[in-house]
Amino acid sequence: MTQATPFHPDVESALSALRATPPARVYFVACGGSLSIMYPAKFLLDQHAAIPSDLFNGAEFTARAPKGLGKDSLVILCSMTGTTKETLAAAEFARSRGARTVGLTTETGSPLGKACDHAIGFEAPYTTGVPIDAKNSNYARIYQLVMGLVALTEGTDYSQALMSSLAALQPAIDRAHTAFAPRFADFAPRFAKQEVIYTVASGASFGAAYSFAICVLMEMQWINSQAIHANEFFHGPFEVVDKDRAFILLKGCDSTRPLEDRADTFLHRFGAAENILVLDAASLDLTGIDPMFQGNLAPLIFFDTLWRFAYQVADLRQHEMLEGRRYMKKLSY
Ligand SMILES: O=P(O)(O)OC[C@H]1O[C@](O)(CO)[C@@H](O)[C@@H]1O
After folding, report:
1. 287: CA distance to ligand 1 center in Å?
2. Which of 66, 117, 217, 296 is the residue whose CA sits 20 to 30 A from 247?
3. Both 156 and 190 in a single domain?
């Protein structure tokens, strides 16, 4: 691929540098909420390219020191703040092994931006509270990078379809807020009283379930949680299902939907519908999003709308979301 793509300039600049010698292997590395976007990014790469990839927590990556990591590797890292020490150490470790590195961060001049060969900026409403257009989010930028890698390694260029889909994403999110509002108003009072809420998903949606469980329910609401893969559900977790147990099930529209459908059937067989909050991509108006990317973009809609649900739960519990933490960023660990 030699022609310029319509991607964001930071993405295009990283891709230009990779064009002469595309990587033979990709590692997706981050921590916490930033790690959660690596699941759908790897899913997208696996869908479209034969290039092998793996996904690691930052500290695990450095400690495990994969033997395959070397000059032909590309390590894609993400840290919203650009300061998470495990992610920075992973970037430095990758470079010490001769790998090429790309860091996604809200501040390209942040420590992560500086520690990587290429920095890709994105926007996040998370700490600023200022709403963004989802086409400028971390998901949007990493998807551009992934589809750029697909073009480099497979010769298939879907950049226009991706960019037009990303442009249609925010309106789809806004419509979903309206569509889900009555369900959220109904579920919030019950879920605010729960001590445990599990989140279930698979495929492109697993990352959204993971970040909602560990970053929102546990970190920001101190509600016990676990992200359960929709098929792993049948390999242990389903034993806890009863009429009182609370679940959030994300039903996406990627190729793994049958896994989520099966979990849905079981949950409704032994659980109570009033304690199973199902967000179903089939009920969403995805106008303008190319069918090829609908499964990849549905998780953003789930996460954005669930974030609003979390604030409703937080209000009822009188437990502040971001200010309620007792350890994170409050002491050294
Ligand atoms: O590396 P980042 O994206 O700045 O993450 C910092 C922190 O933010 C979270 O993603 C959410 O608070 C945590 O999981 C993580 O420790």
Report:
1. 32
2. 296
3. no
The binding-site residues of ligand 1, defined as CB within 6 angstroms of any ligand atom, are 31-34, 79-81, 84, 87, 215, 219
Q: Summarize pLDDT for 190-223 with one digit per residue, the tens.
A: 999 999 999 999 999 999 999 999 999 999 999 9
Nearest atom in ligand 1 to the alpha carbon of residue 84 is: 1
**236 pLDDT more than 60:** yes
User: ipTM more than 0.95?
Assistant: yes
3-state secondary structure of 54: strand
Condensed to tens digits (0 to 9), the pLDDT of residues 2-13 reads 455 799 999 999
Residue nearest to atom 2 of ligand 1 (CA): 79
Strand partners, 30: 57, 78
What is the C-alpha to C-alpha distance for residues 44 and 21, in angstroms, rounded to an integer? Answer: 21
Residue 42 is which amino acid?
Answer: K
Q: Which helix (H) or strand (E) holds 148?
A: helix 138-154
110, 184: one domain: no
- Atom 9 in ligand 1: residue holding the nearest Cα: 33
Write the pLDDT tens digit of every residue in 144-179: 999 999 999 999 999 999 999 999 999 999 999 999
> Rounded to two decimals, what is the model's pTM?
0.96
Number of domains in the chain: 2
User: Quick one: 238 exposed, middle or buried, by C-beta within 10 A (0-12, 13-18, 19+)?
Assistant: middle
Q: Is residue 331 part of a domain?
A: no
